[in-house]
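Quick note —
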Amino acid sequence: MDETQKKQDAELMQLVTFSIGEEEFGVDILKVQEIIRMMEITKVPRAPDFVEGVINLRGKVIPIIDLRKRFGLSTRDHDKHTRIIVIEINKMIVGFVVDSVSEVLRIPSNTVEPPPPVVSGLESEYISGVGKLEDRLLILLDLDRLLSGEERDVLTGI
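Predicted structure written out below.
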């Protein structure tokens, strides 16, 4: 094993993991600004279907996106586990509604594989890889590609 390989083995990715339905997802912790409990969301007229509305977070108006709707999954009622993950995407602050937030994980970057060609139910351009953990798989989301340029422009206008 050469030095480069050893360095890659030692490189840890820090991820915030969360669930949507039965699937577990991970996002780079550096993109996550905070995780908050569900709060009152103000509906916005003529917003795209997956946009729940906006919240006022300490004086900042932040668009809220329901990841279930974004991924084309059936909606479900929010409960005590529902969270909003506040994330910065392309210099824009957005909140994502998820079913629950699990934990902060450190996984070696060499346990992450590129996404398989067909990922059931999800459009694979959002997926940066699949992390293999001991007893489960973790779908890693590429947050910068979760919204198209057009969708970002719509959110900027909200």
